[in-house]
Design goal:
This protein has a single domain, classed as Rossmann fold (3-Layer(aba) Sandwich), CATH 3.40.50. It is α/β, with parallel strands linked by helices. The protein contains six helices and eight strands, in the order βαββαβαβααββαβ.
Length: about 200
């Protein structure tokens, strides 16, 4: 499959890129610092900023699916880039997009009418990152795309075990953490399997 990737130099994004390449996909990745990505026969790297429509359009050109592992890092990159992705995908008639979100935008068990970050399910006081992911979720859910948002909880570095729990729109009960490796493992499989369309997928051990 020909895949466009955003955020391929991040913690989850770099592992996801590795899995995509190992499984024979052809990846075009947008990066501000291309030198951070190792050369591979199936990898095309475009230098640019995800906040720029033209850079996103160039990255998506000719793809069959889009993956975004963009982080927030106290910027508005995610909320600015997502509408650009949606527009470019419509122009290219691409339907499938998978993104890496956060457990903060899953439904709250304390107040099911609200999201976890709004109801205070986690101990985090700063909600800037969750607000950025919420903006991306709103944009995707209002679109006609076949979207999936993978929503890990506490995310330490770690290897792939292949053993974890997932639940659409909720964090699995008593889920405390999930490794970056297993998050990438699930995301790469779900991109192709499409078992969780139009859902935020909570993932945890």
């Amino acid at each position: 499959m020909k895949i466009s990737l955003f955020g391929g130099t991040g913690r989850v994004g770099s592992l996801l890129l590795q899995r995509l390449l190992e499984n024979g996909h052809h990846v075009t990745a947008l990066a501000r610092n291309p030198e951070k990505l190792s050369a591979h026969p199936n990898l095309t790297v475009i230098q640019g900023d995800a906040k720029e429509q033209s850079a996103i359009a160039m990255t998506i050109l000719g793809s069959e699916a889009v993956v975004s592992a963009l982080g927030t890092d106290k910027t508005t990159t995610l909320s600015e880039a997502t509408p650009h992705m949606i527009e470019a995908m419509r122009n290219e008639e691409i339907k499938r997009i998978l993104t890496i979100g956060t457990a903060g935008i899953l439904q709250s068990r304390m107040d099911p009418e609200r999201l976890r970050y709004e109801a205070g399910d986690s101990n985090r006081k700063l909600t800037t990152a969750a607000e950025e992911h919420h903006a991306a979720y709103r944009a995707l859910s209002a679109s006609d795309l076949d979207w999936t948002i993978v929503c890990p909880t506490y995310l330490p570095d770690g290897e792939i075990t292949g053993t974890y729990r997932t639940l659409d729109n909720w964090l699995p009960v008593d889920g405390k953490q999930i490794s970056s490796g297993d998050t990438a493992h699930f995301a790469e499989h779900e991109l192709v399997a499409c078992n969780h369309l139009h859902a935020r997928v909570g993932i945890a051990y």
